[in-house]
Amino acid sequence: MIYIKFDNRTGEIISTLDVTRLEDALAAVRAGWEELLAGSAEPIDTAAHYVADGVICCRPSPPPIEATEVDAIVGAPAVLARGLPEGTTCTFAGGPGAPDVTLQDGVATVSPIARGVWSAEIAPPWPQQAAHCRIAVSAGA
């Protein structure tokens, strides 16, 4: 049996527990785990699944991005992704000087202001998975 602890508001799976003994199942229920119907005893990828109306569902794939590695030039806008749903956010990791990002009409565009390398996460509304890419900015020609 697979027990799942999940967020009741969003359906996000927090953790899973696979039990084979009745004693373990009873202990799981007493500890607040929710029993869910699972087709098999295979481990559940918590990043790729969520719970909706008591059923384990696959999260929609990440939005398509232009490239996993984007080479850009300071001052020249570069497109990261197109066809993004409303409510999408974009965040950067990698230190100060990260590019500015514009999300307009479903298109994510970066405007680099300094040289460097950053990782970008393009996160559409839940439950769709986030897309990731690397942005390398050079000074140009």
List descriptors.
single chain, 141 residues, mainly beta, 4-stranded mixed sheet, 3-stranded antiparallel sheet, 12 strands, 43% strand, elongated
Characterize this entry briefly.
By secondary structure, the chain is mainly beta. The chain has 1 helix and 12 strands. It is elongated and about 65 Å long.
Summarize the structure in words.
The protein has 1 helix and 12 strands, in the order ββαββββββββββ. The chain has one helix at 22-30, and strands at residues 2-6, 13-18, 34-35, 49-52, 55-58, 69-73, 78-81, 89-93, 100-104, 107-111, 116-123, 131-138. It has a 4-stranded mixed sheet with strand order 6-12-11-8, with no helix packed on it. Strands 2-1-3 form a 3-stranded antiparallel sheet, covered by helices on one side. The chain has a 3-stranded antiparallel sheet with strand order 7-10-9, with no helix packed on it.
The description of the largest β-sheet is: 4 strands, mixed
Number of helical regions: 1
Radius of gyration: 20 Å
* Record field, number of beta strands: 12
Q: H/E series, N to C?
A: EEHEEEEEEEEEE
By secondary-structure content and strand pairing, the structural class works out as mainly beta
Strand order of the largest sheet: 6-12-11-8
Helix percent reads under 10%
- Average residue pLDDT: 84
- Unreliable spans: none
Oligomer: single chain
Q: How many angstroms does the end-to-end distance come to?
A: 61 Å
Choose one word for the global shape: elongated
